[in-house]
Amino acid sequence: MSHHEHFLLAGVMGWPVMHSRSPKLHNYWFEHYELAGAYVPLAVKPDGLEKALRALPALGFAGCNLTIPHKEQALRIVDHADARARRIGAISCVTVNADGSLTGTNNDWYGFVENLREAFPGWWADAGPAVVIGAGGASRAVVDALIHEGTKEIRLINRTRERATSLAHALDGPVTVLDWDKRHSALEGAALLVNTTSQGMVGNPALDLALDALPRTAEVCDIVYIPGETPLLKAARERGNRTVNGLGMLLHQARPAWRSWFDKDVEVTRELRALIEATI
Ligand SMILES: NC(=O)c1ccc[n+]([C@@H]2O[C@H](COP(=O)([O-])OP(=O)(O)OC[C@H]3O[C@@H](n4cnc5c(N)ncnc54)[C@H](OP(=O)(O)O)[C@@H]3O)[C@@H](O)[C@H]2O)c1
Question: What is the number of domains present in the chain?
Answer without folding.
Answer: 2
